[in-house]
Design a protein that fits this description.
Structural class of chain A: alpha/beta
Helix content of chain B: 25-40%
Distance between the termini of chain A: 27 Å
Shape of chain B: elongated
Strand order of the largest sheet of chain A: 2-1-3-4-5
Number of helices of chain A: 5
Largest sheet of chain B: 8 strands, antiparallel
CATH class of chain A: Alpha Beta
Oligomer: heterodimer
Distance between the termini of chain B: 76 Å
Number of helices of chain B: 16
Radius of gyration of chain A: 14 Å
Helix content of chain A: 40-55%
CATH topology of chain A: Rossmann fold
Number of domains of chain B: 3
Order of helices and strands of chain A: HEHEHEHEEH
CATH architecture of chain A: 3-Layer(aba) Sandwich
CATH superfamily of chain A: Response regulator
Largest sheet of chain A: 5 strands, parallel
Number of strands of chain B: 33
């Protein structure tokens, strides 16, 4: 069994909220995520995602989000989510050398970062690590 | 030929002298009389005596500001100078002034010039005639074919009434003229100046003929007062001859003395001063005059060995040199007779033109023998150097003034060079900043398709590794990747178009310019959460010029707005761009709600070196450069106004 198949074993019952404002990227990444996850909930910006989160937060195991977005940026959205559920697992996708101040994310207890453009092995490694923890928590 | 002089004492002794010298029997006899008693009666008396006793002679006379007889300078005397020619034919005439000095010059020259004319001696009355235009009129006829000499009559410094006369006729307004016509006559002329130019050049900004109103945009009397003090300027025109204006024409230094002042602050000069001409103040000193003498006499001696010298010298020299006036004459060759008078303006000619001079001593040298033994300059003039304390001080002060002026000018020039260098550097810096801005825009523009392509690759790879990849998916992804690459390629094209150096000047539509800017900046602004509305009242509005320059201006304003928004947390960020026409001039306004520019720095935003950006963070070309572009390349302007919650920039494109 290869790494991807191993990951799918871990993620096949999980729900991810994926937040990205740019159409083409969102379409492609969500296709990738849907290979693994049971369900991919889409947010097109921070505000939209926060609203969907409020409705579906019990179902959502993992949030994967961009940072630079209109209406509400990623950091604001994350703070809001952490207020609702401080244990929410969150992975940030961000551009290398982007202007966001990543120092601000230290206190937010995030589960990891992925640099855009993404590399498949990094994606798989990170998701494997994070979903292992999620599954452990769920089984308890 | 020869010349003899007689100082008038009474009628009897004059007649006796004329008879003794047997002038009446000479065929070609030129009589000049220089009358230091400036009255009509005296002029009439002398000319009548001469005409009666020398009926065949050509007799011309002028009132003076001093007379010259050999090396003696007199005032209020009457000198009669008789020249007898052997190989020269004399023609003479007079002409009345008819309100047109130029025509008077043309007419008198026409009536006495011959094919073999070698010299023309002209006297005009000294007041109310424009000597400069008179000379120009003469030049039209003389055309440089012969030497023109003479001067304008004086009246002992009174500036009230001057007279000239011709064969018994006395004129109050007009000219008299003599031509010397010969194959054998050798004629040379020269002049001496000796006035030292002091201070910086000034531009004549308003003048009318010989009346000057402004130098460098300032009333001329105020300029005199500024440099010479009110005490001195209040004595104009009396001291005008001592502080003339000096100008350059055809390599000749020409001085113009002030001869009258008006209540409006303008001054009348003894000769035209043209608008746009550059002038400096002149200061005369005995030393500078005599120093210049020495050099010029030497030149003069070596080129000519005259039998007769006529001197027409400016009243200013006599008044300045005073008792030393004769020193100038001492230095002339001693082997011939000298006669002449002090004028209110001297006539001179060279290859290029005829001139009215002031402040000079003009010399007309005549000889009917073309082979005279060469004169050793040492025998001809006194070489003693005149120096007294006054002259040294004068020399020192003149020198100091000029050194100060020169140093000041050098410092100003240095500053100008420094400023230019600074401007160049800041332009360079702006250019770099602009490049940086462009690159950051490309980065923004490319990031999304790169992410999408990468994700598409991951997608394929994952599906493949999990055995879920279908042909259809490969097709779909492949097309997607190609489309993304096309998008990126278009971005490059658009940017290349932007950074391409110096597009040609052409007519372009403003709405097209804005749309192409949005193509490259749009994503960035959207990423910053800024809503851009473009409203065009007329899509056909167009401007002629370099489109890329206008693009830079607009991009600069948009980037400034973007940066201003960056510091704000707010929901409704907008930039409203409006294209419209106002009084037939195309206008773009760019309005934002980014809080505006603090009032205390509003006045500074268009200054060349003003920036609110940290070192290295400055983006775009800057507002100074933007305004400069609008003014210089579009004949327009760039204006700022504060709105309720932000800024509004008005780009005025006048070059339609």
């Amino acid at each position: 069994m290869n790494l991807a198949e191993e990951l799918k074993e871990q993620t096949k019952d999980l729900v991810v909220l994926y937040v990205e404002d740019e159409d083409d990227t969102r379409k492609q990444i969500s296709q990738v995520l849907s290979i693994f996850f049971k369900e991919v909930v889409i947010g097109v910006n921070g505000l939209d995602a926060l609203e969907k989160y409020k409705v579906d937060m019990d179902r959502i195991d993992l949030v994967m989000t961009d940072l630079t977005m209109p209406k509400m940026d990623g950091l604001t959205m994350i703070r809001n989510m952490k207020e609702i559920n401080e244990n929410q697992h969150i992975v940030v996708l961000t551009a290398h050398n982007s202007s966001e101040n990543l120092m601000e994310t230290i206190d937010l207890q995030l589960d990891g970062f992925l640099l855009k453009p993404m590399k498949m092995d990094k994606l798989i490694t990170l998701l494997t690590k994070v979903t292992k923890v999620i599954n452990l928590e769920k089984s308890n | 030929m020869y010349t003899l002089n007689h100082k008038y004492e009474d009628e009897k002794s004059l007649i006796k002298w004329l008879q003794e010298e047997q002038f009446a029997s000479k065929k070609e006899c030129l009589v000049q009389f220089f009358c230091g008693v400036p009255t009509f009666e005296m002029m009439e008396k002398i000319s009548t005596i001469l005409t009666k006793n020398l009926p065949l002679a050509h007799i011309v006379g002028s009132t003076t500001d001093g007379e010259i007889s050999d090396d003696i300078v007199t005032t209020n005397e009457i000198i009669i100078s008789v020249s007898i020619f052997e190989k020269t034919k004399i023609i003479s005439t007079y002409i009345k002034y008819d309100d047109n000095s130029f025509e008077m010059g043309e007419n008198i020259a026409k009536s006495i010039q011959q094919v073999d004319t070698k010299a023309m001696i002209l006297f005009t009355t000294g007041l109310a005639i424009n000597g400069e235009q008179f000379m120009n009129g003469v030049r039209k006829i003389s055309n440089g074919n012969y030497i023109v000499s003479g001067g304008m009559a004086g009246d002992d410094g009174l500036f009230e009434k001057t007279f000239i006369s011709h064969n018994g006729k006395v004129l109050t307004k007009g000219a008299v003229g003599v031509t010397l016509n010969s194959d054998k006559l050798v004629v040379k002329n020269n002049y001496q100046f000796g006035w030292e130019a002091v201070g910086l050049p000034m531009k004549v900004t308003k003048s009318d003929g010989n009346r000057v109103y402004e130098l460098d945009g300032v009333s001329i009397i105020d300029v005199y007062t500024k440099y010479f003090s009110a005490d001195v300027s209040s004595q104009l025109p009396k001291i005008g001859i001592e502080i003339p204006l000096i100008l350059h024409r055809n390599d000749n230094k020409i001085a113009r003395a002030c001869i009258n002042r008006f209540d409006d602050g303008s001054l009348l000069f003894a000769g035209d001063i043209l608008e746009g001409e550059s002038v400096r103040f002149g200061i005369g000193s005995v030393d500078t005059i005599l120093h210049e003498n020495k050099r010029l006499y030497r030149e003069f001696d070596e080129s000519c060995s005259p039998q007769t010298l006529f001197i027409y010298s400016c009243m200013a020299r006599r008044r300045l040199l005073k008792s030393e006036s004769s020193i100038e004459l001492n230095r002339l060759p001693k082997l011939c007779n000298i006669s002449g008078f002090f004028t209110y303006g001297e006539f001179f000619s060279d290859d290029v033109g005829n001139y009215l001079f002031n402040e000079t001593m003009t010399i007309l040298a005549l000889s009917e023998v073309d082979n005279i033994e060469h004169l050793d300059p040492k025998d001809c003039y006194d070489d003693e150097h005149i120096e007294d304390d006054d002259n040294i001080m004068m020399y020192a002060l003149t020198h100091m003034t000029n050194v100060i002026a020169k140093e000041w000018q050098e410092r100003v020039d240095e500053e100008i060079v420094k400023n230019k260098e600074q401007e160049r550097q800041s332009f360079q810096k702006n250019k770099l900043a602009q490049m940086g801005e462009m690159i950051s825009m490309i980065a923004h523009q490319w990031r999304q398709p790169l992410n999408a392509i990468s994700a598409s690759g991951i997608n394929l790879s994952l599906l493949s590794s999990m055995g879920m990849l279908e042909d259809e998916k490969i097709q779909e992804s492949s097309e997607f990747i190609q489309a993304q690459c096309q998008k990126m390629s278009t971005t490059i094209d658009t940017f290349m178009n932007f950074v391409k150096p110096a597009k040609e000047s052409k007519k372009f539509r403003l709405i097209d310019t804005l749309e192409s800017i949005m193509q490259i900046m749009g994503t960035q602004l959207v990423n910053h959460n800024i809503k851009v509305n473009i409203e065009s009242k007329d899509d056909k509005l167009s401007v002629v010029g370099f489109e890329d320059l206008l693009e830079q201006v607009i991009i600069n304003i948009l980037s400034n707005a973007r940066d201003a928004f960056d510091e704000l947390k707010m929901d409704e960020k907008f930039i409203n761009i409006t294209v419209f026409e106002e009084n037939n001039i195309p206008i773009i306004t760019i309005e934002d709600n980014a809080g505006g520019i603090p009032e205390e720095i509003q006045a500074k935003i268009f200054n060349p070196y003003f920036t609110t950006k940290e070192q290295g963070k400055g983006t775009g070309i800057g507002l100074y450069m933007s305004m400069d572009i609008m003014k210089k390349s579009f004949d327009g302007d760039l204006r700022y106004s504060a709105t309720e919650n932000g800024s509004c920039f008005k780009i005025i494109c006048a070059s339609k």
